Amino acid sequence: MASELKCANCGKIIENIPKHCGEDMVYNEKSGQLECYMGAECGYMSLDELLCQGCREKCAE
After folding, report:
1. Does position 3 have pLDDT exceeding 90, yes or no?
2. Bridge partners for 34 per DSSP
3. Which three-class secondary structure state does DSSP give residue 11?
4. Which end of the chain has the smaller Cβ count within 10 Å, N or C?
5. Which letter, b or e, does each residue of 35-45 get, where b requires 16 or more Cβ atoms within 10 Å of its Cβ?
6. What is the pLDDT of residues 4-58, one digit of tens each?
7. What pLDDT sits at residue 1?
8. What are the extents of the domains in the chain?
């Protein structure tokens, strides 16, 4: 997995791996994205979309 997950907006290190279907998402080295442990067909997230809690809260305002 990538050594550190960073917020795509501010660059802050993200300490908690996002979850999908109640489990931690896994990093797919071939696609370069986080995927549901059940497979990309279930859910995925590009690292370019990964935001820290602070940036998510700002976007929600």
Report:
1. no
2. 27, 45
3. coil
4. C
5. bbeeeeeebbe
6. 889 999 999 998 889 999 999 999 989 889 999 998 899 999 988 999 989 988 8
7. 46
8. 5-60
